[in-house]
């Protein structure tokens, strides 16, 4: 199972963050986090007026509770910070935590902030979310699709189908992954109907 460190800028829109955490719940990968990462996310999400301070705090509290085993403590990575090849302290801390936590991948929209060659020497690749998710669905197609279907089934306000969820992910910046996901969803729907002796239909979408 891959261990990934997700940069703060990937954690909103919330749909991408939600998927990354759901994949951890289903043991498809493990998202590593630090207190500094969650604190930065809270500051940014509130500053950008995408969440209230109370809502952001509830989300990070839930992450701390439900994903406690994925925490990388400051005492585990602090000694590595000065060795990291970056000028920004936040980026240095994220890289150090990824190294200390045994991450295989750093996922970020700002790949230039995370020099790939020095990190490769430490066994860490740098990918954007679309690249990473595309690789994941090729490697573990059934598992990733099952996670998305489970996520959609749990949506109530408003109700969402798996295709609706795929649409929201495409708008959040992972269109290539969404293309692969939608093809898998369509194939699965057609396979179920043909197996039962019927004709394939277009997938149902929530209103």
Description:
The protein is α/β, with parallel strands linked by helices. The protein folds into two domains: 2-127, 5'-nuclease (Rossmann fold, 3-Layer(aba) Sandwich), CATH 3.40.50.1010; 132-195, no CATH class. Helix content is 56%, strand content 7%. The chain has ten helices and four strands, in the order E-H-E-H-H-H-H-E-H-E-H-H-H-H. Strands 2-1-3-4 form a four-stranded parallel β-sheet, sandwiched between helices. 33% of the residues are buried. Residues 189-207 have low confidence and may be disordered. InterPro entries: PIN-like_dom_sf, PIN_dom, VapC50_C. Keywords: Hydrolase, Magnesium, Metal-binding, Nuclease. Pfam families: PIN_3, VapC50_C.
Short description:
Helix content is 56%, strand content 7%. It has helices at residues 14-25, 35-47, 53-66, 74-77, 89-100, 116-120, 129-139, 141-153, 162-171, 175-195, and strands at residues 2-6, 29-32, 105-107, 125-127.
